[in-house]
Amino acid sequence: MAKMDSNELLEEMGGMDVEALTHSICRHHLSNLGRDYGRSDLFSLYQALAYTLRDRLVRNWVKTQRSYYNQNAKSVYYLSLEFLAGKSLSSNALCLGVEKAAEEALAKFGVTMEEAESAEADAGLGNGGLGRLASCFLDSMATLGIPGYGYGIRYEYGIFKQAIENGEQVELPDDWLHFGNPWEFCRRGFMFTVHLYGREEKYTHDDGSEKHRWTDTAKVMAMPVDMLIPGYKNGNVINMRLWEAQPARRFNLDLFNSGDYIRSMEDAVRSETISKVLYPSDRLTEGRELRLVQQYFFVSATIQDMMRRFKKLKLDFSELPNRAVVQLNETHPAIAIPELMRILIDEHMLNWDESWRICRRTFAYTNHTVMPEALETWPLDMMSKVLPRHVSIIFEINRRFMEEVKSRFPGDEDRLKRMSIIEDCEHPQVRMAWLAVLGSFTVNGVSALHGELIKKNIFQDFVEMFPGRFTSVTNGITPRRWLKQCNPGLSDLITEKIGPEWVTDLSKLKKLEPLADDAEFQNSWYNCKLQEKKRLVEYARKEYGIYLPTDWLYDVQVKRIHEYKRQVLNILHAITLYCRLKNDPNSVAVARLKIFGGKAAPGYFLAKRIIRLINSVGAVVNSDPTVNHKLRIAFLPNYRVSQAERIIPATDLSEQISLAGTEASGTGNMKFALNGALTVGTLDGANIEIMEEAGRENMFIFGMDAEEVERRKYNGYNPSEIASADKELAEALHYIGDGTFSEGDRELFQPILDSLFANGDQYMVLADYRAYVDVQDEVDKRWLDRKSWLRSSILNTAGSGKFSSDRAILDYANSIWGVRPMGKE
To answer: Which residues carry this modification: N6-(pyridoxal phosphate)lysine (predicted)?
Structure first.
């Protein structure tokens, strides 16, 4: 009888029509918010609608979870330190299929969906491409019916909120939870104890064998907080389980009663710090140690949660790999490998060989790094302090592996040093990527080029040792958020012409190809783009007080600020156009708006100085009437998912100009192409595959490829020779150094010039400058041929089918995870 009542209640929560949604909004005003719905405001309406949609999500989530157990499903545990989900209101309404009903229900209260969503904060759970990819993957897992969970940390504060003051980045707290989060469920009944510090101890087991235990530890509690992720109109809902750190002892009454009020709360403050901030600054040792603690904290809680589910099945531990697969999104969760070993050996008394076999069949590792110097390592002394038992396990993994290497390659001492998990140097380091490779059954890159580069440049020794372990799965993006939701005009036009199936099968966009030369369709396409530009103009005016021209070429580079992404190359082009226009106001044919956005890491001095340069050049250009009729520059602060949803649909030209061989994949390049932007880019990351799908003639490819970069570095690279031989480049560099863009201060941008000359131009900005400027001249010519531009724009969208995260997740499911889409019972 109780089960029947439960099912009836679930059905009662599920009304999807306007009347049911309106009734639920009113009910939540009263019961959840304690407010009279007759006196609602914008924020309370957002909250009430969010709770209304959450009711429907949780109904479907319960049914989905039941189906996992009823069908004995093998589940995916997707571990990521970042999930960049953005806002959830419109996305969840879309996936539930109630976006129009929700709009009508809100209209009864005098509010639009766009207004309601403006009250929602972007979830501060990620920083860049790693987190955006993870969120796309969860969307696709839910849409495809892949049984699984996302696991991460519920950060109280995001990395930071970026403001621009006097052209410089200023970091403010990203207090995204200030007003609460109506989408989450706190699961206090499923808390786990996470141990830290302490010491390793040997003891004799009852059977006479020598065993190890971790003792005298500090303890912190991990509380799961679930955010529900719906599939697209399929009734399937999975969850992202985020861990919040809480103290094992919240309050010391003895200290309080003795008058030491501050120390009475020390344990609570210390514990809660763990999930306080995304990526605490690692400039200080304490910050770096906190990062390590964060990584272990979420990994430990996740593995305990996985084992909790597995033990319900009452199976032998050897069956674990048949019921669970753990995907490590980068090396941040790699400590999960020795953690599972510890649990199996120390807590469940399995022997080493059996435990290692289980681990090696359970973990898979995605690498996102091309550059060897960017691979994560931890100081051995720090890890020994924080995780002494795990270091002991890592040493034993490494000892056994070194014996294996010696057997395969006798006498090769250099190989042993290169392949050891423990880097033998003055201050020994633990190589987390090496640990991830050894403990995983598959290692994958995230684009075709990246997959080859990591085999050649980073893991060459391991490829020789384990040739079948390495593969690649090209990244993807969800078409639901990144076209259907963020670009409704273009989405409706596409659906009108080819039907709605593309939303869950992006390969259907190929049907647009015959329409690329249709004049009427081109005109409709142009009007959709113009409408999105108008929306961006209004957004920039309201949000930042920035006034943008409407029908110009929108040339956009929005991404993390980093030398390898080469924002400096883009601004050098802007200065070149400035110089041309100063010499002859009619020398530039196309009116171009350069839009920049992105955050620099707080401790990354040069990246922050690049932001200052962009804004300083913009201030001069935008105020000069001899230039600003053809060139303007805008830096939109605090780049985030909701801002990207406004910028990307309005973009004409997508800047993907990293040095070839440095960008693993990119997903921004895919979002822009999906929305009809043409790419100006190098042969790097997924740009190559976009070119193969859309056609080189529909992009602007320039510069060296990865092999040419390596040859040029090997043969000696002299940036001064290049600068002196190119008059326009020399002029642009001169203006950076002579104070033109710094109110006469010749020292302000000297660090940028030093990076190009004194420090050898590591990312070869000057080497690619001339090819970049020349291809931008080709951009102008194509833009002036409107029919040709629109044709290429349509074909970029038509060629984007490969870059769906649905395709990527099916690749993972079929070739790595060994799981299949499932229905619900």
So the answer is: 671
Classify residue 17 as left (phi > 0), alpha (psi -120 to 50) or beta.
beta
3-state helix, strand, coil split of the chain in percent (to 5) is 55, 15, 30
Q: 468 and 609 share a domain? A: no
Tokens of 437: 């490779």
Separation between Cα atoms, residue 470 and residue 677, nearest integer Å: 33
Please tell me whether residues 457 and 575 are part of one structural domain. Answer: no
- pLDDT tens track for 45-92: 999 999 999 999 999 999 999 998 888 899 999 999 999 999 999 999
The SS3 assignment for 127 reads coil
- 568 belongs to a structural domain: yes
**Same domain flag for 443 and 570:** no
**What is the enclosing helix (H) or strand (E) of 61?**
helix 42-70
CB proximity list for 150: less than 8 A, separation 6 or greater: 78, 80, 83, 134, 137, 138, 229, 238, 239, 240, 241
Residue 596 has pLDDT above 80, yes or no: yes
Query: What 8-state DSSP symbol labels residue 552?
Result: S
Classify residue 507 by burial, with Cβ atoms within 10 Å: 0-12, 13-18, 19+. Answer: middle
Q: Given this model, what pLDDT does residue 152 score? A: 98
pTM: 0.96
Measured distance CA(170)–CA(637) in Å, rounded = 10
**Domain boundary residue, one of 474, 509, 527:** 474
Answer yes or no: is 710 within a domain.
yes
Last residue of a domain, one of 421, 450, 474: 474
Query: What are φ and ψ of residue 657, in 5° steps?
Result: -115, 25
CA pair distance 534, 649, nearest whole angstrom: 11
Q: How many domains does the chain have?
A: 2
Each residue's pLDDT tens digit, 467-496? 999 999 999 999 999 999 999 999 999 999
**Backbone torsions φ then ψ of 153, nearest 5 degrees:** -115, 140
Calculate ∠ Cα 445-448-450, nearest 5°: 50
Burial class (CB in 10 A: 0-12, 13-18, 19+), 248: middle
- Give the H/E segment covering residue 221: strand 218-230
Q: Are 676 and 797 in contact (CB under 8 A)?
A: yes
CA-to-CA separations, 657 to 386, 666, 782, in angstroms, rounded: 40, 11, 19
Print burial letters for 413-448: b (CB count within 10 Å at least 16), e (below 16): eebbeebbbbeeeeeebbbbbbbbbbbbbbbbbbbb
Order the strands of the 429-431 sheet from edge to edge: 377-379, 429-431, 422-423
For residue 755, the domain's CATH number is: 3.40.50.2000
pLDDT at 825 over 60: no
Work out the angle at residue 257's Cα, subtended by the Cα atoms of residues 252 and 262, and round it to the nearest 5 degrees: 60
- Would you please indicate which residues are annotated as catalytic (active-site) residues? 368, 559-560, 565, 667, 671
Per-residue exposure over 311-327, b if at least 16 CB sit within 10 Å of its own CB, e if not: eeeeeebeebbebbbbb
Q: Are 397 and 434 in contact (CB under 8 A)?
A: no
pLDDT digits (tens, 9 = 90+) for 726-768: 999 999 999 999 999 999 999 999 999 999 999 999 999 999 9
Domain range for 664 is 535-782
Confidence of residue 824 (pLDDT cuts 50, 70, 90): very low
805 part of a folded domain: no
Host H or E run for residue 342: helix 336-342
CA proximity to 446, closest of 66, 791, 811: 811
Query: Is residue 601 included in any domain, yes or no?
Result: yes
Which residues in 206-239 are b (16+ Cβ under 10 Å) and which e?
Answer: eeeeeebebeeeeebbbbbbbbbbbbbbbbbbbb
Extract the tokens encoding 770: 């001339």
Strand partners, 431: 377
Label residue 760 left, alpha or beta by phi (over 0 means left) and psi (-120 to 50 means alpha). Answer: left
Q: What is the largest CA-CA distance in the chain?
A: 90
